Amino acid sequence: MPKIRASGLTRTFGRGSSRLTALGPVELDVEKGEFVCVVGPSGCGKSTLLRIAAGLLRPSEGELELRTDARHPAAMIFQDYGIYDWKTVLANVRFGLDIQRVPRKEADDRARSWLSRLGLAEFAGAYPAALSGGMRQRVAIARALAVEPEILLMDEPFAALDAQLRTLLQDELLALTQSASTTTLFITHSLEEALVLGDRVLVMSARPGRIIAERRPPFGRPRTGDVRSDPRFTTLKDELWELLRDEVRQEVREVTVP
Predict the structure, then answer these.
(1) Which keywords, in A-to-Z order, does the entry hold (predicted)?
(2) Structural domains in the chain?
């Protein structure tokens, strides 16, 4: 049974003559343990899809269902980190566990364990202002994974990082999600990122966003970042860009034509 299922999902904003259909209709299944990446032009509704999955927005029509018996089934990681400046790194990572009322000693131990796995153990007592952008995003990832979610929702989490750090964090995320078999829905503008991480890559149209194509990278699991040097990687990247090119042009036309 799919962990995530969208059926006839649409989302509109505004009313009357100013009404805008941002998304849909979308049909989507994400299986248990699957890592699904969604790519598409700016403004196509990728983030709207994820926010509906996270319960931050309601669909206008149709439904999106998270199929799990867990009390806290999903965790979300945002592009802008979403961590609290007034809390220490340890307190940020422990935040979800505190909400779940996990006993403090257990919560501290789990938070410190994830900080150690992400190379942040020595910064447990620091505040976010003292961290680089990459370190802040590691804190956000540690906080999400500390609650041991069945489903991980990620909205362009590495978009603001430089290319070298982005590559490093992609490889770390790949290792973490494979070891935990976490079901992941990942939004990105980067075709390279989608091919490194995804079991499936879904291509969305220009607004209103619909899924117009699906590709399965031919790289097995467990996978490492070494797939970037595989000739099939470049071939599939070029194929995805051909699928996406017209949608990007359509979005540009809608933005520039009055």
Answers:
(1) ATP-binding, Nucleotide-binding, Transport
(2) 4-73+151-256 (3.40.50.300), 83-148 (no CATH)
